[in-house]
Amino acid sequence: MKQSLKEFPKDFMWGGAIAANQAEGAYLEDGKGLDISSGFANGIKHEHDKVIDENKFYPNHEAIDFYHRYKEDLALMEEMNFNVFRTSINWSRIFPNGDEAEPNEAGLKFYDDLFDEMIKRGMKPLITLSHYETPLHLVEKYGSWRNRKLITFFLNYCETVFERYKDKVKYWLTFNEINNMRRMPGGAGGIFFEEGENKQQVVYQASHNMFVANSLAIKKFRTIIPDGKIGCMLSLSNVYPHTCKPEDVFETMELRRRSLMFGDVMIRGEYPSYTARIWEEEGVEVNMQPGDEEIIKCYTSDFLALSYYRTSTHEYGQPFYGDTGGDQGTPNPYIGTTPWGWQIDPLGLRYTLNELYDRYQLPLFVVENGLGQIDEIDENGEINDFYRIEYVRDHVKAIKEALQDGVEIMGYTYWGPIDIISAGTAEMKKRYGFIYVDRDNEGNGTMERRKKASFDWYANLIKNNGNNI
Ligand code: BG6
Prior knowledge:
The protein is an alpha/beta fold.
């Protein structure tokens, strides 16, 4: 029998996570094309402009200028003792339109330099292949993932970056929060509906195409980077039944299953048996091609990466609603909340890690967890974000408990170690960072970086391998 771990394992990975489109800016520089995120002026839950409106302000077009300042920023991450750093490759830097035969060398070179810098500073790159960054041209010309041609384009992109970075990057994730196809298909898969369409039909067909792409990418990965690990990534903030009324309990399970289905396919290698009934009730008929099911069965994920921010509750009959934080229902009276209504629940993280390990028996990686808050600079120029320290401490404690429960956990990358543009609302005001960036919602500010109180605290936590809390 496996012994219960009392401490964080020696090889535990500690660090932070961002996404290219929320940090890099330089949205058309060095040959980059437009990607889906370029058209969201107010975040991925809101309207999307297929054509960029010159009179509108799009916060992520400049973001925090990580594209030009990554050396300075990674030096700060090194000061916090990070041994892993998660970001994404923006697909549209490599293939500006998505369907070219040849990649854009300037884009490839940028990530070469970025990964070199991470490695030089002691961080393993953990790279997401698609984090709300599908090239916009693929949406306009092909209807994005509803079209199977996307599989070929995605594989061409994967093969290019696997070959190019095989000696530098050993940890990969395919689609960020793929189960957000259900909540925000525009951001997650470039799916925008046409009048009168059965939305569920489109979402499940597009998701199926992504599953096949995921497995075929893993197939390539196994040959090109045989010593690497590739995971799937899901948004798994949790949802409790609002009461013990059996209908609340049952429907909450059904809601959770709508997310877990994505993990089931990519980890167990097949659609769970409850899928048939859901599709029947929602009038969905997914077109699968011969061989799809075998491919999905054969090439599955090495680990499950997840984001966890909060919990919510669900009441029977309530419409299913979600955002970047996960499913969202009725507030829970027992726990506190952020100004954005995200309810803080560290024990929920321990619960979730146990739930997932029970289900999959596969290593887990907490690749997103963090607190979006309003930070103020005081008269001494300090930012005393003690609420953030408390949030991280309590969630790291929950991870430690889960390790003791026997759950295998590879690492923890805090979301937004430096303030970046919010994916859900495009605000700068919703700050997650241990590092403050002088920029506001309207784009004013010097972009100067400044350490918050949580900076030294997190550096110390990592130095002690999490065992000082
Ligand atoms: C996750 C996304 O959904 O949540 C990130 O993977 C996002 O891209 C994060 O930034 C936090 O959400 P938000 O809306 O506060 O930025």
